[in-house]
Amino acid sequence: MMQKQLPMHSGVNKMAREKGSVRKNFLKGLFTENPLLVSILGTCPALATTKTLEAALGMGFLFTIVLICSSMLVSLLRKIIPEEIRTPAYIVIIATFVTIVKMMTNAFLPELYSTLGVFISLIVVNCIVLGRAEAYASKNGVFDSFIDALGMGVGYTLAIMLMALFRELIGTGAFSFGTIFTFIPYFKLQIIPASYEISLFQTPAGAFIVFALILATIAFIKNRKAELKANLAKQEKARKLAEAQAAAAKVQAGGSK
Amino acid sequence: MPNAKKYILTGVILGSIAAVAAGLIAATNLITAKKIKQNELDKINAGLATIYGNDAKVKDEADLENYEYSVHYYAVENSQSEFLGYAVKTSGSNMYGKISLIAGFDNATHAFMSLYMIVNEQSYATTLVEKYIEPLNKDSSKLDDVTCGATYGAKLVRDMVNDAKAAADALWSKQNG
Question: Which of A158, B58, B75, B103 could form a disulfide with B164 if both were Cys (CB 3.0 to 4.6 A apart)?
Answer without folding.
Answer: B103
